[in-house]
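Protocol step 6 of 9: fold each sequence in the batch and record its structure tokens directly after the sequence line. For illustration, a two-sequence batch is reproduced in full.

Sequence one:
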Amino acid sequence: MAQKPHKRTVGVSLKMYFDLEKTSKYIADCAALAPHALSRNVDIFLIPDFLSLTAASTILRFEAPTVKLGAQDCFWEDSGAYTGEVSPAVLRQIGCSLVELGHAERRRLFGETDEIVAKKARAVLRNGMIPLVCIGEKTRGSVEVAVEECRGQVVSILEVLGKDEEVIFAYEPVWAIGQAEPAEAGYVVNVVKGLRGLCEGREVRFLYGGSAGPGTFEKMKDGVDGLFLGRFGHDVKNFREVISEALERNPTQSPRYQGPPCLAFGTYVLEHVINSGSLFAPIVPGFAKYPERSFRFVKGIAVPAGLNRAAKTVRIKHDGSGHLTDEPYEFIVVATGTSAPAPDMPWKAGVWSYHDMKNMLQGYKDKISRASAIVIGGGGPTGVELAGELASANGHRNGVTLVFFGIYDLSSSEELLPNIGHLSVSREAEDKLTTLGAKVLLGRPISGFVEPCDGSELRIFRTSEGFHRCTCNLYLPATGNSRNSCILQSELFEARTGLARVDEFLRIEGTEDIWAAGDISNAEPALYVNAVRQGLWVAKNLDRVLRDKEPKAYEFNKPCKCSSSHFPGTPFLESPFDTTPRSVFAASTRY
């Protein structure tokens, strides 16, 4: 069976050539290439020396989160009495996502064998990183001889590679390393073809290294997935040129930019489901294909009542500094969503940074993996999805007990998903949750709960019927979200709900230049699928207005059925984004 094409990949190792200052400058210069690489759908990675990793991680985290950071080696144990060795667990904490292993220099100078490299690869995989394994024959000969010499290097890694784990092989003929010219292209393509034959059904990428530079990939693109650069890549201009050459296989198809998914889905707090690092994509690179002056990104918070309609400005408190500026606008789209009463919940978290959000998600994954009894408060889509995911993942295997309080907007409800509008969906959700082992308690809105002070697992919940005592070691509130409408003047939103009042065009009533989309709008129920449609509609209407055309009236969604991804038998609605059925909490309409 032919393997599927892999995403083009280009990376650089700095070995031990640069000092700290030069390395930091190089990393910063390469970070500026991130939009260039993203617009061409090319993965790039940088591997500095060990002492520069922390500084490099900081630069990339803030300037270019899509650029992967790698290390030049690691040990096969996470901790212990191993003087001078580098822990893969610590590399992961620093921010590394891949580790180079088995380079010819390490095999020659330090006597590393295929067995040692395989043990290190297993340690890298164990810590959630990708091993970048260097392979290659020592002397030049025939293609068949090269494949046979590399066979053991490849097979030893495949033996420690799990079913869904990935490895990158950097094919570097030892005899070509450091030479003026790379190996002959036809030779490389045929050797890699032979090595791919050993990897049927495995998640493997092959890069070429060994005096690779500008012009190399174009000659080898039929056989390799990218290049692993050495000294030729130490010139940032060369690195950029190679990225341009590695344009994705289908250049007529524009790469899709995926923003962060809606974190109201319980899927993301399950340890085994998805790595939190893959949930987010940076905002700025998504606009790289547009003229530079047409987009400016400001990270901050719109202050309460900060929208000045007369001056046409919005007051912004900048990221963490407290500095205030009045940003002018011609049109403004309010898509501020909602906030949860508990600001440290990952589905509606009040955090400033990508790094903080990743840490929060991991913290909840750890709490859930240790919990034996969980209480969820909330009968809306978030609570039901979370309960379904947890019950399906843990209920039967780990004996997790879910006591599920059905509530909506802190008011009593005798059914789940009361805002969906279909009693059949509510009953189906309750039946499926019960089948999965959850205990569902309806009509008991929680107004508060008391944490135990003695370290016990007894928690006391204050409900409409008095106090309810329950033994659990984790409480997850998914209730009582409030709309983030404080940016608006009071006459623009409903006092009771905080919802912005919009007209048939999704423009806020009484204005000509303020639009609203998503959970902040009173147009439709606060559902992911509705937010996506409204956002796209507002964008199209703004385009029409800017072209002196009349906006089009919004075509409201028909009533839709909702379902947890673990409730089989309900078809899922297609999303315009890169999502899987596990990621979407909406089913196709019943009509």
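Sequence two, same batch, same settings:
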Amino acid sequence: MQVGDSDAATVPNPAGVRRPDGLRRVAMSKHDFEGWTISVLKSPILPSNCYCDVLDGENTKGIVLETGQSWDSVLSKTDAFKCQVCRYGEGLELKHLPEMVFPDNLLHLEYNASGFVLEFNTLDAMKLMSTTDTHSVRVAMSEPWQASKVEMGLPKDILHDFNWTFTTEYKGTLKERGNNSYKSEPLFRVETNTSDKLNLEKLMQKEQILFYDELTLFEDELHDNGISNCSVKIRVMPSGFFILLRYYLRVDHVMGKVCDTRIHFEKGNQYFLRQYQCREESFKNLGTLDPQTFSDINILYNHLPIRTEIIDKIFIT
């Protein structure tokens, strides 16, 4: 694929290979920017049933698997034979998964000089979901929170023992390419709670968009009682790149919550800033707003007070 080509290439189903729902495609696009290689993978939602039986060496050799890797580059042969249904089942301790999980959706940025990787993937986001109900919300709005779950028809024995809103505090994944065991020093260093601020003036300037994409990692409509959604988008400009990872939760008649992770890299720097900001409010305290506001995140966002904010400075080598 040519550098900078944002048209996704699809991988057809090999002749004679049965795939769930008849066909699964992994779409890929890449863009190079100032020593970074930016890769985006997209795929359909997670199937309901295991399909490990179709992932054998003869059927998958030379094609792209659900991990977005070719047969020869898969981490291990054992993993290669595991479908995403099994990988997610084994990798998570959740009793229930969101209605829509996009297991292969991935935003991957690699700093070529060292092999440092900044990544946003569905599995890591879901690993940070609590296996129990979100305590802080339950305490703050106990009656409407529990009443909503009863109205949803959830069994009494699970009203308290799983995170039915699929709340995650995922901020992205920082890692090294491969093992890189030969490295004597880490490829990145995180300075937590830095006094530096995002360069909002720079971000508000009109610039040419060199590359843009967005992905949904997971989504659930909470049995028609709201929405839980995690998505990520990136835009690359001549001056740098900006990433927004957003977790959005709305429980109808109960509360609204938006947790944003903003990452800004400016060309020429050996670091980038990561801002994590969480806004939350009960609808009881937003009673003066037009009900239409609650269903429009762009309007609701400005009415939610900031509860948590921290900025990290991440140095790369």
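Proceed to step 7 once all outputs are recorded. Observation for sequence two: Residues 20-316 form one domain.
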